């Protein structure tokens, strides 16, 4: 039981170093990708039409952090040279603005934030939003690089990718240039673009491979130096976090999460030494955190259905059939103030939940008399479901 605040931490000197938005002053182990990036961006410095670029790579491999870094370098270099070429960078995360229209509005607002013009709300069409965006771009009298991060979220709605690269050709901007940088998790993203978009975009590609264990060790050592006390880490901790993440995903995010959680475990225990077993505990915690994020991202009815299964599981009534699950689900949905969906929609949701790995679906064959039917069971930790739902 704690009755006072600590005056000093056991493990950390600065926990922010392990947070998602932390800006590492130094990008490590990405020299090749940075060099390729610089090669493509350079045209803009000479006042030429900027190249469009799409960056590909799995989650956590540094796409966002490297893009922020090189575009920042580009605009400061333009400023330093002071040769009349102004370069501005504006970014939207399509994960939060999932249509071309929403992305356009977000870009207008991001650009207006540095001006005395007011941000816009809803009630405009896509064309209006694009007009306002072009007006902002034109007003800069320079090159504007538009970063569309997590571009996959736009899905089929790729209109903004058609419009932006043609801004000059169509005469929407005359004194400025527009370049586009798209960032995608999906290597097949380009294949799904409409052919008119492909034709206008004419982009260069940069691929970010997963990190190997050695690269992850370098990144982790740097973070530990910046955010943890000296000598708190057992020599095996960083290699273990790096090895697990390299094997699993090649993601620096996962590796950093593991190291932070291992530190948290020791810190909460009142120890100033982090050991290998803390990493084991960290693995469980990080997985649980990811699972909970996944549950949070479900639709309302997806959550209701999962909760009904978790309740049935808690009462040892699983696996069960759809018709046995339905009454539980209906109570849960009504309890949450929503109208329950019909049987067919619930079955669709169950299929989605199965695909996402939350639910297990088994075909049971009871012979000629009983027939064939599906039974469902929960395939994730029920506690995690209860915890997320009670939020
Ligand atoms: N080369 C690196 N040097 C230092 N830190 C890095 C490096 N690569 C990634 N990181 C860190 O790892 C985390 C994930 O990186 P980032 O957000 O850039 O991944 P991403 O490829 O954009 O992933 P996602 O597709 O999920 O958006 C961030 O905290 C970032 O600071
Ligand atoms: Mg990213």
From TrEMBL:
One Pfam family cited in the UniProt record for this chain: WHD_Cdc6
Residues bound to ATP are 61-65, 211, 223
Sorted UniProt keywords: ATP-binding, Cell cycle, Cell division, DNA replication, Nucleotide-binding
Q: Name one GO molecular function term.
A: ATP binding
Report the coiled-coil segments. none
Q: According to the UniProt entry, where is the signal peptide?
A: none
Among the record's GO biological process terms, what is one? cell division
> Which family does the entry's similarity section mention?
Belongs to the CDC6/cdc18 family.
Q: Which HAMAP family match?
A: ORC1_type_DNA_replic_protein
The entry's protein name is ORC1-type DNA replication protein
